[in-house]
Structures are given as structure tokens and as C-alpha cells.
UniProtKB/TrEMBL annotation:
SUPFAM superfamilies attached to this UniProt entry: HAD-like
GO BP term, example: N-acetylneuraminate biosynthetic process
Taxonomic superkingdom: Bacteria
Name used for this protein in its record: N-acylneuraminate-9-phosphatase
Alphabetized GO MF terms: N-acylneuraminate-9-phosphatase activity
Keywords noted in UniProt: Hydrolase, Magnesium
Coiled coil (residue ranges): none
């Protein structure tokens, strides 16, 4: 019997890529306006997004983690902007102007952040049948506003934000917490997510069945991570879960 459904948020329930693309266009225009034609604004934006997603070099890791740990995510992002522009041979900009660029990206992304089509109805239907727990990685700085933007608490029973925990996915502890909140055992739940390592690897390590939302990602078999099920897009979730539940009923 399936008692609970664990769900990732970004790229599983919500179209974060679409929101990012809109925010990147706006940031590119704002940065170009601020710095002039000498700035390769699209390259700057791509490097900024890589930075906020922690796709760091070892040198960047050494520089930015202390800022995050000792100060704030906000200060890290401002420093990242200043560093990137300096690295691209741009004149130094003030903290105030760096903050304007950071806020441009954050505000535009948040305004565009929403569920994939059909997901709200899917959550409403599933919540009638089982407990829903969202497990999302990421800093409080960005994840809490996104959770609030889509009013996620009205659609699910529990929300776990990795940035508020000691460990994030794929750590077993965060799945253990989800099991406790849902009051179920690992064989009574299925986890859905787009991250092969954090979502599928984490679920597998906790002996939880997993559904990988592939989004046309390549399947890196060298990772040694195999999902129990694969769907290509979140739009397939309603049909998949209904079919899965029907199969469970027929076997009961």
C-alpha cells in the first residue's frame, strides 16, 4: 500500500528553468545597461547562474563558502556579481549596484515561478489518497520565497527545505525525516525528482522506490544510480501515478 508521496520541487513540480530563462534575459539587459557594450552580458549571466547553483571551481568554493557560512547568501551573491564583473575586465561596481543586479534576477525569477501545467490538480487528487511531502534542496534565501510564491503549503502536507536541515538530499537523514513526518515505512512511499544523484540516489540509499523525471537528461550509468521508474516530463506524473496505484490495487 502506498501511504505517502515524496516530491522534489524545482523541475518536478515547478518549472524553474522557464523562470530562470526569463530572469536571465532581464538580468542580461540590466547588466548591459549598467556596464555598457564592453560587457558580454550573456556570458556574465550564465556564470552568475552557475555560481548561485554552486557550480564552483575549488578556488570559488574556498572563497564563497566562508561568506555564506559567516555572513549570508545575500552577501555571497553580491560578492559573486562583483567578482564576475572584475574578472571580465569591467570597472568595479558598488555594493548598491551589485545588489540591484541581484534583486533584478531574484524578483524576475520569482514573478515567473509557477507549477508545471496540471500539477496543482495532480496534487489535489493525490492528497486525497495519501500524504504528500516535498523535499527541496537549496538555501532558505531562495527556496522559502519560491515555496511561498506557489502557496505550496496549501497543496501538500509537509515541506522540508534542505537549507534548513543539517544535511540535504541525497543524505539519508532528510529522507528519514520525511518518513517520520508521513508516519510511514520506506516500502510505503515513492519519491519523485529530477536529480539523479540527490533524488534518485538518495531514495535508493533509503530503500525508497524512485521515479526519475528525466527532462531529456543523459543517463550517466557510471554513477551507479538506477531509478525504479523513468518519466520524461512532469506532465506525465498524473497518468503514471494513477497507473501505479491501479497496479497496486490489483495486486492486493
Amino acid at each position: 500500500m502506498l501511504k505517502a508521496l515524496f516530491l522534489d520541487m524545482d523541475e518536478t513540480l515547478c518549472d524553474t528553468s522557464k523562470a530562470n530563462d526569463i530572469a536571465k534575459r532581464e538580468l542580461s539587459q540590466r547588466a548591459q545597461s549598467m556596464c555598457g557594450n564592453s560587457l558580454h552580458s550573456e556570458q556574465f549571466v550564465e556564470r552568475y547562474v552557475q555560481g548561485i547553483y554552486r557550480q564552483w571551481t575549488p578556488v570559488q568554493q574556498q572563497r564563497y563558502m566562508p561568506i555564506i557560512e559567516q555572513h549570508s547568501e545575500d552577501e555571497f551573491r553580491v560578492q559573486l556579481i562583483q567578482d564576475l564583473l572584475a574578472d571580465m575586465q569591467q570597472p568595479a561596481i558598488t555594493v548598491k549596484n551589485a545588489l540591484l543586479l541581484q534583486n533584478c534576477f531574484d524578483n524576475e525569477r520569482l514573478a515567473a515561478f509557477d507549477f508545471f501545467p496540471g500539477i496543482e490538480l495532480f496534487l489535489r487528487d493525490m492528497r486525497k489518497r495519501m500524504t504528500l511531502v516535498v523535499i527541496t534542496n537549496g538555501p532558505v534565501f531562495s527556496q522559502v520565497p519560491k515555496v511561498q510564491r506557489v502557496n505550496l503549503a496549501q497543496h501538500v502536507d509537509h515541506i522540508i527545505i534542505g537549507g534548513q536541515e543539517k544535511q540535504q538530499k541525497p543524505a539519508r537523514s532528510i529522507f528519514t525525516k520525511a518518513l517520520r513526518l508521513a508516519a510511514c515505512e520506506n516500502h510505503e512511499v515513492i519519491h519523485v525528482g529530477d536529480g539523479l544523484t540527490p533524488d534518485i540516489g538518495g531514495a535508493n540509499a533509503s530503500s525508497i522506490k524512485s521515479v526519475w523525471v528525466r527532462h531529456n537528461q543523459s543517463f550517466d550509468k557510471t554513477l551507479g544510480i538506477t531509478p525504479d521508474y523513468i518519466i520524461e516530463h512532469p506532465g506525465e506524473l498524473p497518468d503514471f501515478l494513477n497507473h501505479y496505484l491501479n497496479n497496486l490495487s490489483s495486486m492486493a
